[in-house]
Amino acid sequence: MSEKYPTWLTGHVKEYAQKRLPTVTLCSSTGSELLEVWYYGDLLTVKGEPQSYIVDGDEAPGLVAARDPASGEEFVIFDGGRHGYDNMFCEEHDPSELEHRPLKRYEIPASKLVLELGYSIDYEDEKEDFEPDENDTVELISGGRMPWEQIKRDGIDYIALYYVNEEGKQVQILDAELA
């Protein structure tokens, strides 16, 4: 697969580009690129920057979703309690804390959304450490199993979310290290 992005985004990638990092433009299943950002967590203000960053909440890990205002369709962009290397292999979360995370709207108009994805773990070089079984699946910290090829796609170690503002500039609103 030349286009490498997490499986949970399948059906929601309009454009893929290999820049400094793999970069995808998101869309609804109808192809609409104008999406609202909804989140669970807190907003962190960074001195000198005009926008706030979405960060984990005190009660539970952050959750970021996109909503197509035309169709009402909603899909998860990033789940800070389930997605990425650490959540797959290192950090356990109480399932009950992940269940109830009500979303709030991030106060920007529906916008084009762009994700940068980090894949710096060399899974093939470290494959034996993951101990795949005879079906080429790997045990996750949750006790579930995932196919090896999906591990390599979903085991990101970095994610950043940007929206494109009225001037056509990308504005970062999420920045998360995941390994």
Characteristic key phrases:
179 residues, mainly beta, 3 helices, 9% helix, globular
Write a structural description.
With 179 residues, the chain is mainly beta. It has one domain. The strands form four sheets. The protein has a five-stranded antiparallel beta sheet with strand order 1-2-9-12-13, with no helix packed on it. A four-stranded antiparallel beta sheet has the order 7-6-3-8, with no helix packed on it. The radius of gyration is 16 Å and the shape is globular. The mean pLDDT is 96.
N to C succession of SSEs: EEEEEEEHHEEEEHEE
Q: What would the average pLDDT be, to the nearest integer?
A: 96
Strand content: 35-45%
Distance between the termini: 23 Å
List the domain count as a whole number.
1
Care to count the β-strands? 13
Enumerate how many helices there are, as a single number. 3
Query: What share of the residues lie within helices?
Result: under 10%
What is the global morphology? Answer: globular
Q: Largest beta sheet: what is the strand line-up?
A: 1-2-9-12-13
Radius of gyration, in Å, reads 16 Å
Q: Outline the biggest β-sheet.
A: 5 strands, antiparallel
Low-confidence stretches: none
Structural class: mainly beta
